[in-house]
Amino acid sequence: MNLSKKTIVLLMCLVFLFSVNTSAFACPTHEFKVLKDDGNIRQISTVCNNVEIYAELNTVAYQVSLSTVDSMKIEKKYKVNIETFLDGVLSGSLIDLETNEVHVIGQSDIVLPISDEAIKAVLTYLFIDEQYNRQIIVSDGIMYLDTPWVMAVLNRYDSKFYYCAIVHNGHTYIGPGLTTNEALERVKLGKDVFGQTQSYAMVIANLAGGGYTNPEIHGNIPFYFYHYHPKSGTNIMPAQCFYAANTPIR
Description:
By secondary structure, this protein is of the alpha+beta class. The chain has 2 domains: 5-129; 146-242, no CATH class. Helices cover 22% and strands 36% of the residues. The strands form 4 sheets. It has a 7-stranded antiparallel β-sheet with strand order 1-2-3-4-5-6-7, covered by helices on one side. Strands 12-11-13-17-14 form a 5-stranded mixed β-sheet. It has a 3-stranded antiparallel β-sheet with strand order 8-9-10. It is elongated.
């Protein structure tokens, strides 16, 4: 059964809602507001038990921040470090920018103005954007942007030749930029990368294996991309070196 991203958002938020007493966390999904969403910055807000919550996702810097304003107008700002956001599992921590205290979501004794369940619901809404049919996943502390962001990232030409990549549920996700040496190490570990162009993808596959396969694609366009596999003799390595088919060889 295929579920839309909107349905997934609602289900995940409801899970967080009813996992605790509703008097401790009143944060209906319809009260979320999108304050900004220009492809680079996504900002949302809501109110839970008279506490205003603001969250921001920066898809250029791959960073997340959160702030609260309570009924006494006391503002608290946090850096958000997410370790995992995948298949309904969310783990990570908040760092108080004033005190440097670290609140591990679901495991900390540090009292925050909002509950862990509120934090999880807000971050879920921040990461799953049903309006534009895109979402964020986080694996091993690395944030990846869904397929609709891929070309935007490649077109930034931010001096990065390579990016982290991962495939999840048939979608190709793109992560932070890598140097050539970082990309080579990642490929040798069997992990995927995305090349700024087809030629870069070809080069990194060749560096990793001494050879490479012909371009191939396993999934469906536009969610999957052509790629090379490094090849050492007759041994084909598992890493996929992606590229966008409409980027030039140069």
